[in-house]
Structure formats: C-alpha cells, structure tokens
Structures
1.
Amino acid sequence: MPEDMRITERTDADLDTLVEVLWRVHTDGYPATWPDDPRAWLCPEGLLGAWVAVDDDRIVGHVGIAVPGPGRMPEVTRLFVDPSHRSRGLADGLLDAAERFAPGPHIRLDVTEETPAAWRLYERRGWRLTGTGLADWSKPSGETPLLRYYAKRVG
C-alpha cells in the first residue's frame, strides 16, 4: 500500500462519503441490489468494528467485522474499494485491519462465484474455501448467485 494511503477506524462522519464510494462500486455490481438505506446497509446487525481506506484525506474503501447472530463465527462484511483505487493494496490493508480485530480464532466471509478477482485475493491471503452454496438473496434479474464460503484462522 502506498505511503500516502492509510487505514483508519470508521466513524459515523464517514458514512455519507462511504455511500458515494459505494455508489461508484455498485456500477461494477456490488452490492448486487442498491440498498434502500445505504447508510444502514453499511452498519449490519452485529457490527463490531469497521475501517476505511484513506488516500490523501479522501475515503476510498471500507471493511467491517460483524457477528451476525449468537453462536455465529465473526465475518468480514462490506469490503469494497473505489474502482479508481483498486490494485494498490488497499483491500489487503483493509483485510489486515479486520483480521487483527476479529474476536476468536477464526473468521469467515462469502463472495460470489462470478468475482474471481476477489476470491483470488482471499486465497492469496491464506483464506480457505470451505464450500459453496446458493445465496439467500437474488439479483435484480431474479438470478440467485452461487457463493463461495471462506474461513481463516486469525487467533
């Protein structure tokens, strides 16, 4: 990651800017359906912490760690980087922050089969594919995507 870029803890003041970044990311298909309330979407149930990638005081990426329910494994959630800032190591920096913060010995994530650049990133970082399955949501086209499930030992 270039020296002029940094990862910092997200604050509520970052949310409006993150919605703008998310809109640019959405043109590439993430999230598959634009949320009714994107600020709330950035704060999923069970969110424990979130970080932003900053380039010269401009927010250009995001990641969170959440525990989606009692007894569930912590998960990486809402990871995205502005298309204009990809391939600069920001996703690695965001994942480093999330992995350091995660409670417990393991964390998980899921990613659509149709995003090989994302799942190659996870595999390069030591994430292990644990299975595949259909999503519990559909794209605007009505298609239900196939998800790849990953886990990583962090503790």
Note: The beta strands are 5-9, 47-55, 58-66, 75-81, 106-112, 128-134, 146-153.
2.
Amino acid sequence: MSTYDKYFDVEEYIDSFLAKTDWEVKENANQLYSFSSLLLRAGGEVIRRYLLCKVYPPEIREAYLKGYMHIHDLPFGVVGYCCGWDMRLILLRGFGGVQGRIYSRPPRHLDTVIAQMVNFLGTMQMEFAGAQALSHVDVYLAPFVRHDRLNYKQVKQNIQRLVYHLNVPSRWGCQTPFTNFTLDIHPPEILASHPAIVGGQYLDRTYEEYEEEIEMINLAFVEILAEGDGHGRPFTFPIITYNITKDFPFDSDLAETIFAATGKFGYPYFQNYIGSGFDPNTIYAMCCRLNLDKRALYIKGFGFHTGENTGSLGVVTLNLALLGYEAKKDEDKFFELLEKYANLAKEALEIKRRLVERNFRLGLMPFTRLYIDSFDRYFNTIGVCGMHEALLNMGFEDGIASPEGHRFAVKTLLFLRELIKQFQEETNHLYNLEATPAESASYSLAIKARKLYPDIILSGTPEVPYLTNSTWLPEGYTDDLYFIIRHQEPLQRLYTGGTVLHLWIGEQLDAEAVRTLVEKVCSTRIPYFSITPTFSICPTHGYLPGRHFTCPHCGTRCEIWSRIVGYYRPLQFWNLGKYTEFFRRKELKISSGSTTPVIKYSLEDYISVEEVLAKIG
C-alpha cells in the first residue's frame, strides 16, 4: 500500500497516545484516558490495518483513506455495530450459558432481573462495537414489583442500583457501556394483552394489569436521573427514549416530573408517534417478522430507539462535501459520484456482513449466539455527512439554509432511498438510510478533505475544520424554532434509520415550558428529537444552568456539559472538531424568543413535508 501499511511504528504510536498529541485520544468522548484505552487503541489499530490490508479491496481502502467515506468503528470491524434486544429473552432464559462460564436461571425478583440486565448489557457490549438497547423496560419490570410486594422506596432503590451500575466504566477503553432504554408509561397495544413473565414462566395476568407498577418504575427512573450522581453530575447512560403516543399523559404528575428532568439535564429523548405518521406497533411488528419484503423500506427505529431483535451490522457514512467539491456546479456529476460511492459503501457493508456472519459461526460472539440464531433482521446502514458543505462547494448560496439548497438536499435523500431499495433487492439484505451521529467522523472526514483539496469549503476554522452533521442546518444559522422545524421536517422524514433533531437550549426550562415545547414538536412530522440544555457543574456548588467556565459563586473551574452527538459529556472530553462546533451553536431562548429571525427567505419557497410524503407514498 502506498499510503497505509499493515505495519506501523509501535513506539511512535504509543508515545503519541501517552503524550496526547494524537487527536484520536479524544475520538470518543465516552472513553477515558487510561491504560485500558491505550490497550484498546493499540489493539484496535492492529484490527483496523488487518481489515484495510486483507479484507477490503483497494478501491474501498482508498475511498476510506482519502475521506470519500467513513467505515465506522473499524477497530471493531470483525463484529456487528449495534443491537436492540428483546428483554423477554432474559426473562425467559436467564443470563449466560456459554460452556465453562456462569449461568443464572430466569429472574424471580426485581433485584435479580436488574442484576441480570446489567450483566447482559455489559457482556453483549463486548461483542458489538456500539449501542445495546432494550425496549419496554418499564412494562417488562412491572410484574416483578407486584410479585415482590415492593413499595415505591424499594422500587426506587432498585432502579438507582440499575442506573449507577450501568454508568460504571467497565467496558474496553475504560468506557461506560453504551446503553439505550425505551420506556412506554402505558403498555403498548402490541404487549398489553400478552401474559406477563416472572421467573421464566408466563403468568395468568397480562401487562395491561400493571399500570400502577409501571408508573412507579417511570417515576423512579426520572427522579434518579434528575437527582444526578453523588457530585450532581448527570448520568450519561442509559439513554432514555419516551414514546409519545396520543394517550401520553401530558397533564399528569409523572409527565411534569419527566419534563422537569428534561429542562434540567436534557433527558429523555422523545419519539414522536403523534404527528410523525409512524405507528409504534408497525415498527415493533417489523422487528419481529421473519420474512420481510426487501422491495420496501423498513424503519429500524429513530435515533437511539432501536427495535427488538434488530440492529445494524455495519455503518458507512458518505462524505458529501467531497462529492460536492468534485462535482462543482454539475448536478448530474454529483449524482454520478454519489451513486459510485454509495455502491462502494454497499460493497463494504456486504463484505463486513459476510465477515461477521463467519465469525458468528466460528464462535467469536459466544454470548450473542445464545440469544439469536442469525443476523437476518440486521441492517446494513448507509449514512451521510456534510450536505451543507457539499452545497456550498457546488455554488448554492447559504448552502442547505437556502430554498434551492434545501430542495437539492431532499433530492439527494430521495436518490439514496431509491438506491438502498435496489441494494435490498440485489442482496436480499436489509438496508437503511441514517443521519449518522458522526461524533468523530465529521472531524476526520473534514481533515481528509482539506488534505486532498486545500481550497475546499468546510465549516469550522482552517486549523480545525468539521462537517455539518448529515442534512442539518449549520449550527449557528438561526435560533428561530419554527424555521428549524419547518426546514428539518421534510429532510428528517426521509431517513429510514437513525435521525434526530437536537434543540440546543441556552437556559434551564421549567416543566411547563418543556411540556409546551414537546407538544409543539409532536404536532409536526419530526420523528425523534431532544431538548438539550447546556449546563455546568461546579465541584462545590453543583449544577449551574448555562455555560460557566468558572463558578459565579466561588470562582472554581467548572465542567460545561452538553450533547456531543447523542449523549452528554463534559467539553474537556470532546474532540477538537466537536469542541469548535459547540461554540458556534446558536442556542434557543425559549423564554425570550428568537433573537435572529430568518427574514432572507420566505418559508413558502422551501419544499414542504407534504410534498415529500407525496413523493415517497
């Protein structure tokens, strides 16, 4: 290889890590600088080079190295990416069963099922590169509360144990396991009439009979999350998603507690089943079907809400900025390049699928093999990054913020949707289109693009460039909430995998303000969103709303917390690209309204979500 070899200078590699001169030391904000992260980084580099030198052909290797596309988590590229598990597998089978390793029978008590959940998620995290998700957690835990005759104080103690244990850095690289929970508040229709499970046995009661216990569990979760840890810091995991359906109790005491926690610490995420047009039962049913029509596009779930017994085997993100630069003002050329690199992404994903399936058969994922038989229901995921920069390089004034740029972005996503339909029919494998989080990819792809073409237009600074995430508006464009939603509705509705609208908030909101905001967004087609307040933590005075480099009370240096992509971490752990982006974010001022209303363009000039829905049927 001319630019990348299977051999590398171990001395230089380790020294650069120890001295923190390599930006990849902060590639992952969930990873702590430690011996464990050094061990992970060195071992991961060996696997990365093995894959690039032996597994992937030269054209894919060169596309990756030059920055036309990013193959996510190459250091873990011999196993799958992320997984959503059916929690009933734990309830019916217990945990473990690998020969020569410990086995726990199906849980009979709440404290036991919580211990098994922690062990299950932590162990499965060792066999996947990314997130591990459980859905309907409140519903599945509720029967154990009644079985054990627990009061609220006892329930809260158990949920506290679960949350604290899931935030221990027990994963490789001194990381906290990346975990996601979906909570329902009410049993969803698909589960309501199903018999409850305790001790590996079906009971003569159904889940709809446990409303009181479900509410206790939800209240315990939210109160613990709102309290923070022993120093008042937020819990990074599990990432909580609430399904907002038409029967969501907006005016209840529980909802008020949820919204107060959101206004303070920014969790949970909200899955919009009111205005989005999606049916939670359809998404759930899709995840459980054995035979899927590959001619259709299926929804895996949005953002961090992953369905049960499904996930992604691999993710490849396309660098649209490079394609826009090379196409210049030739739109046909742009789509030729897009098709070329989308096909390379497909080839890379098919190669990885074959590799992971082989390793699965060989026993490289022994615990995963206990709970699933195959990866047939797992997606190959193609994502995009830098649509805004692509448009700037093609001569669209204001990039994706302009009506013309917006329409071209919609056209781009429609084109990719048709391509992945073809890929499904061609390969008989599931594909989805995702607004990939690109925590490190947005920075690394920009660095590679600048190296290839020094005059390319990128966001950030000449020294620290980055790409705007997927098809988002540039972070500093506006704080006009109505414009942001109107602009993003048609774009976010076109993704069939993960997508999220982050609403950056520069203040602590009270519960009533959050409730109003959630109701407003849920009346739109936005499928999945977060309300993300920025806050600071003083070692002495604890939580402080907003950005504070030093405490206004004592002058002590503070931690500033926000979402780097999908999860909260202090700024000092962010990579330079995301750090630079943070200070360009224009935060919404809900209490005082927009300070920079968009007046340059008329909203009627933008393609509407109704036009987009008419195109996709």
Note: The radius of gyration is 23 Å.
